[in-house]
Amino acid sequence: MAQAWFPLEEHFLPRKLSKENLDRFIPNRSAMDFDYAPYALTEGRKPKVEVTSASRKAYMNQLAETMNQNRTRILAFRNKPKALLSSNHSDSPHEQSKSVKRRRYIPQNSEKILDAPGIVDDFYLNLLDWGSSNVLALALGHSIYLRDASSDSTSMLVTIDEEKGPVTSINWMQDGCTLAIGLDNSEVQIWDSASNSQLRTLRGGHQTRVGSLAWNNHILTTGGRDGKIINNDVRIRSSIVGSYLGHTDEVCGLKWSESGKQLASGGNDKVVHIWDRSLASSNSTRKWLQRFEGHTAATKALAWCPFQANLLATGGGVGDRTIKFWNTHTGACLNSVETGSQVCSLLWSNKERELLSSHGFTQNQLTLWKYPSMLKIAELNGHTSRVLYMAQSPDGCTVASAAGDETLRLWNVFGVPPPKTTKKAAPKAYLQIFSHVNCIR
Predict the structure, then answer these.
(1) Residue of 288 and 418 predicted with greater confidence
(2) Residues 6 or more apart from 397 whose CB is under 8 A from it?
(3) How far is CA 344 from CA 244, 301, 403, in A?
């Protein structure tokens, strides 16, 4: 006869919430009777002998009565002991739990999904950036859109002429109002987002498209498909004040260190360079500080560590699929981690020792790593195409990701953002643009 199946719960009796049904016993030394124990183990187990002496018999009876008075067992047990000391010397469980750090909850789904129609699916470009004024800039084809994260309003900054575009890179200055825009025709435009006005155009530095940008105060560094890296001082008429020569193919990644003294550059030539700001020159002399040749594919993903000045994380393309960590002072490769897919971008958390990476084929996911163990904390899925671009909010909590599937997703991966406060009305109102651009799926 076939054996009947029953719900798993029915195989177990309900547990009694009483002291008689405990499954853990902890000896209570203070309740043990070490005087009675030797008697019970020796005298109590000896065969009884006939005592002829009346005084001896009286003594033995008196001894047994005294030793066995209210005695039931040698060993005593009790429930799990309370903490000997608490931080505030209180027995309140609520107060004791305050000192214990709670495990952070990481949402597996994106907070918002926005349409990004016309985004260029090109690994070598940089089309997303989040400024210090909490405005997210995204390039869609020939147009630049701005999304104010504080008010959830969206506007279009500019549409580039067909003969100059499409847009190939964008980057916010530290002031959060000045936006640099790299173009396919080798020009770079500087725009003021507060007044929606163009400040100037930089020409003559490159012969081909400008795919990477990086601000260092008033110095704008540009990287082109021609392999050149140009320093531009936007305060002066002849803006070119120096160059770094060393790449033999397109420069697709540029990142200044937090101190502004070192520049990291990654290229399609599979090389990462570290440059010193003071060594930029207008001649052809190669003056890099370090040259890393460990990757076997284009290296676009670059991220300086916020808690260790000379630590740089780099990610390789589809032919490499690794994240490497470098000591930029000694040039040593500290670690190399195989990720299994193309590494498109990297972001450090400024709250925890964690690193976020975005990937291409096959899962098109975001992966959160614990540093330095590089254990996976979470994988965030949702994009259906390679996640080419990532940007981090000014408060460090939210990450925006844009992919070739024409969606922009917001993730609360590094913590919960603080509650929104009432914001004063801005002098310039952002107009709502086409509904399909700001649509939340």
Answers:
(1) 288
(2) 351, 412, 414, 415, 416, 417, 418
(3) 24, 6, 10
With a CB cutoff of 8 Å and minimum separation 6, the contacts of 27 are 75, 76, 77
Helix/strand/coil percentages in the chain, nearest 5: 10, 35, 55
Q: How far is CA 248 from CA 13, 227, 290, 316, in A?
A: 73, 5, 16, 17
pLDDT recorded at residue 147: 97
Asked if 160 and 142 count as a contact pair (C-beta separation under 8 A), the reply is yes
pLDDT confidence of residue 44:
55
Residue type, 95: E
7, with CB counted inside 10 A (0-12, 13-18, 19+), is exposed
> Cα-flanking dihedrals φ and ψ of residue 151, to 5°?
-115, 0
Asked, as a colleague might, if the bond just before 166 is cis with ω within 30 of 0, I would say: yes
pLDDT single digits (tens) 32-88? 666 666 666 666 555 555 656 777 777 777 777 766 655 555 555 555 555 544 444
Neighbouring CB atoms inside 10 A of 148's CB total 17
pLDDT in tens, 401-419: 999 999 999 999 998 776 6
Residue 16 has pLDDT above 50, yes or no: no
Q: Is 195 exposed, middle or buried (0-12, 13-18, 19+ CB in 10 A)?
A: exposed
> β-pairing, 178-183 with 167-172?
antiparallel
Q: Find the angle CA(162)-CA(120)-CA(438) to the nearest 5 degrees.
A: 95
